[in-house]
Design a protein that fits this description.
The protein is mainly β and 358 residues long. The chain has a single domain, classed as Neuraminidase, CATH 2.120.10.30. The chain contains 2 helices and 25 strands. The strands form 6 sheets. Strands 6, 7, 8, 9 and 10 form a 5-stranded antiparallel sheet that branches. Strands 1-25-24-23 form a 4-stranded antiparallel sheet. A 4-stranded antiparallel sheet has the order 2-3-4-5, with no helix packed on it. The radius of gyration is 22 Å and the shape is globular.
Length: 358
């Protein structure tokens, strides 16, 4: 081989290796949101989405500002604050969730529920008008004053096949003996306001850090919660099915805390569970339906790098909303007082599926 030919091959090999390295590097770049919301006043934490079933493009994003002078901020799908719907003056609202069709005076009412940490109360608001319907707040963990286990954090709402709606509530710390979460039935108090009835206590806690993020899969009837630094615990959401832990997901591969949990429904039975790896600015994606042999065996499918920093809370909705979000959206809180909104297709990449776009 002459010298010129050898040099040509060396240069070609170098360029090929450089291209491969660049491709690998690009694949590891964090995904950018297509929209970043307006900033909340103090400290963004957890998002939820209310779907306008008549016109999904008019759906709303509700996000917490978890300060002693905090609030529930309401955004449109362009990330702009809807001032006439914002609820201010809440005492450190931590997490928020949305459910549909609570019967109040016979009227089907959509609700947003947040945990007001410093008052030990649930605060409940009708949607989309964000009017208070809780008589000033509903106290929870009432018998835990002496233990100090009343510092509210996580919440998820569950609606069963009978149409009953439950709030599953967690706190910053609590017992490790299987009663960390308390579940309340939400119902009309007879005057069109909401009252809550305690129906069960369940849930193992490692005692190592805290439990904040809780998510419910209404269709499959499961509740998931992040035991930070340990994994995501899975139980039945229906009280009558018992308090046995069904799975502990994501016990390896996380850099720091397990945090926000959200569920993308490809169908009633299939989809993905996304869990925040808070310290790494990543989300781990698990198979929602489990394996063919074991519905509680949730395979890790991919890890997604995102621009959202130190993300506590997230939400995923598999619905065609508008031209920006034709196959759904993914929302992650970022510690710069904003929420980042991603196209589902960007999160899915080539590894995951999406719903059909309209």
């Amino acid at each position: 081989m002459n010298t010129k030919l050898a040099c040509f091959y060396i240069i070609a090999l170098f360029l090929s290796l450089q291209a491969k390295c660049q491709t690998t590097k690009d694949n590891n770049l964090p995904i950018a949101p297509i929209i970043i919301t307006d900033s909340v006043k103090k400290d963004s934490d957890d998002p939820a989405v209310w779907i306008d079933k008549k016109d999904p493009s008019k759906s709303l994003i509700i996000g917490t500002d978890k300060d002693i002078d905090g609030g529930l901020y309401v955004f449109n799908l362009e990330g702009k604050i809807q001032e006439n719907k914002v609820v201010r003056g809440l005492k450190r609202p931590n997490n928020v969730d949305v459910e549909y069709g609570l019967k109040l005076k016979g009227i089907s009412t959509d609700i947003a529920v947040t945990t007001e940490r410093f008052t030990h109360k649930l605060r409940i608001f009708s949607l989309p008008d964000m009017k208070s319907i809780d008589n000033g707040g509903i106290e929870v963990f009432e018998n835990e004053t002496s233990t100090g286990f009343r510092d509210l954090m996580g919440i998820a709402l569950y609606k069963n096949k009978k149409g009953e709606i439950y709030a599953i509530v967690g706190r910053k710390t609590g017992p490790t003996t299987g009663e960390y979460l308390w579940q309340y039935l939400l119902q009309d108090d007879g005057s069109g306001q909401v009252e809550a009835k305690l129906v069960r206590k369940f849930g193992i806690y490692s005692g190592k850090k805290e439990i904040e993020s809780i998510a419910v899969d209404d269709e499959l009837g499961y509740v998931y919660y992040s035991d930070e630094g340990i994994g995501v615990r899975k139980y039945y959401a229906e009280p009558s099915k018992g308090n046995e832990q069904l799975a502990l997901i994501g016990t390896t591969g996380f850099t720091e805390d397990h945090e926000g949990i959200s569920i993308y429904n490809l169908s009633k039975k299939k989809g993905y569970i996304l869990v925040s790896d808070q310290g790494a600015d990543k989300f781990h994606v698990f198979l929602r339906e489990g394996s063919k042999k074991n519905p509680n065996e949730h395979q890790l499918l991919k890890v997604v790098n995102v621009k959202a920093h130190q993300s506590d809370g997230s939400e995923t909705i598999a619905l065609s909303f508008n031209k920006n979000f034709r196959k759904g959206l993914f929302i992650a809180m970022s510690d710069d007082r904003t929420f980042h909104i991603y196209r589902w297709e960007d999160i899915a990449g080539k590894e995951l599926k999406s719903i059909s776009a309209k």
